[in-house]
Amino acid sequence: MTYVISHTTALEVMRARRFCDLLAHRDPHPTLPTRAPGAGEVERWLETSPIARQLSRPVVLLAAGEGNRKRCRGFEVRTAGFELPPASLIKLDEATSIVSPEPLLLQMARIATPLELAMLVCELCGLYAIQPGGQIVQREVPLTSIGQIVEFLANLGGIPGAPALRRAASAAFELSASPQESKLAARVAWDRARGGYAIPILGMNESLEVRRISRRLDEAHVRRPDVILRLPGPGGPGIGLEYNGSGHLSEGRQQQDALRANELLAYNFKPYAIWKDQYQSTSYMDGLMDRVIRSELGLPRHRPSARRAAVELARREALLAELNAIDGLTCVMPKGAFYVMVDMSALIGKHLGDRQIGGSMDFADMLLENANVALTPGTAFCAEGYCRISYATSMEQIDKGVDRIEHFLNNLV
Asked: Are the beta carbons of 196 and 188 closer than 8 angstroms?
């Protein structure tokens, strides 16, 4: 029996440092199991497998065929709902496989907000992983790329969640080294309608070969600016952005940062440092992006009307607030002001037709399928029995969503 780790459990594995080499190697597993494992089989696997013993409960597994859905103590089995393309499963050991990053993102597209999904694409296409509690660990190589995600989706057709993932992939960035770098890139590059500054990004953490200032002056040295907006050339000096979080305040770090900046300046590359307080200040970012950076890059000055400027400012404030609220689906309760946690435990055991609500994941799936309302199940935050609803939208949309939820609940038995 092969146990295929899926959904939020697969995300937990992909964020664990100990599995980085196995995931990067991508030893393919051919097909999904055609039957769901029994409770006794899974209990033995959970007790004896070195991989399974390290996983949070309940463990989410995947099987083929709608009839294989089940939920037992310590685990649940979900079904793919469509035929997985080749190389969609990665072998971890003889008894254990995991969905690859591309189908995992498709699974998460059904429970994550558009912004959460875009940031998750940045993470899996980047050089970092978010641990429970918010700790960041670095990866040597990304787990996937935007090109691989697009190719995966091209082989699927009209699968639920595919349009959302396509949009997220088109809005994401590769080679980011931290969540804050991903969020900074989004604010810089996204268009005005989404709250960004519409400044194109050339790349992130790309290697620039500079010259050391100390020791031998002719010795080559590699620096990787967080965000590259332009490389040095006939059009002028290179321009980039560096995000400096609290770690840059540690002893000796500021000296290292100064050395790094001086080497880039000597390479004819201007790195603009952005500290956390400056990042959180919309007025500061407005001045830096719209007046300084656009001028440096030779972009047309942004001159909106007073009314348009007020609308765009509101969008930038909303984007900043929602980015701050995103916790990366890290199994901790969210602290953002754009979400509300709803206790749905009283609905467990109720039916709609032949489907039973076994937990928050079932409730979220059934609500999406039957009422076209998307929310995040509490299992993503180790808060089973709850669901998270975003209200970062218009009152008209909120009222419409509440009416649909009420209609759905009235049809449960």
From this structure: yes
